[in-house]
Design goal:
The protein has a single domain (2-154), classed as endopeptidase fold (from Nostoc punctiforme) (Alpha-Beta Complex), CATH 3.90.1720. It is α+β, with helices and mostly antiparallel strands. It has helices at residues 11-20, 43-52, 67-72, 99-107, 119-125, 140-146, and strands at residues 2-7, 26-31, 34-39, 61-66, 76-81, 148-149.
């Protein structure tokens, strides 16, 4: 399956790079000209919701994003290949984003919620060799290291 990786310039991207030691900070499953991705909640909005119980206003969770929109959010993107079934990502559309797991990533604390998803979990969900209980351990940089460049016939 095709997986698109990206790295941006937002503060959260810098923090993810610092914590994981890699350039790639986000990923999604590419199906035709759409990306199935888990999009996070802006940190300020999440804190406001947590502290003041205000409703979310941004689009977040597992969603379908047009490829060009995905590319526009990142300084650099790259499409690579990982063994898997891209259509399994469609099963996760509408699932919430696991913001607590993202916070836990920085402190090495397992706050994973099995009913919420981060970007790497969406890709790992599609991989036949990854059990559900292990999806939480896959970050964009780990998946990038497991991937390979596309062959001409796969482009």
């Amino acid at each position: 399956m095709k997986v698109i990786f990206g790295h941006g310039q937002r503060p959260i991207s810098h923090l993810i790079r610092l914590r994981t030691g890699g350039k790639q900070t986000h990923c999604g499953v590419l199906i035709d000209d759409k990306v199935i991705e888990a999009r996070g909640i802006p940190l300020g909005e999440w804190l406001k919701h947590l502290l003041l119980d205000t409703p979310y206003t941004s689009k977040h969770g597992v969603m379908e994003t047009p490829l060009e929109e995905f590319k526009s959010k990142y300084k650099h993107t790259e499409v690579r290949y990982i063994d898997g079934n891209a259509n399994k990502a469609l099963e996760l559309l509408g699932k919430p984003y696991d913001m607590a797991a993202l916070i836990g990533l920085f402190f090495r604390i397992n706050y994973h919620n099995p009913f919420k998803y981060m970007c790497g979990e969406v890709v790992a969900h599609c991989m036949p060799t990854v059990e559900k209980c292990h999806e939480q351990y896959f970050t964009a940089i780990i998946l990038y290291r497991l991937s390979r460049k596309l062959k001409r016939s796969e482009m």
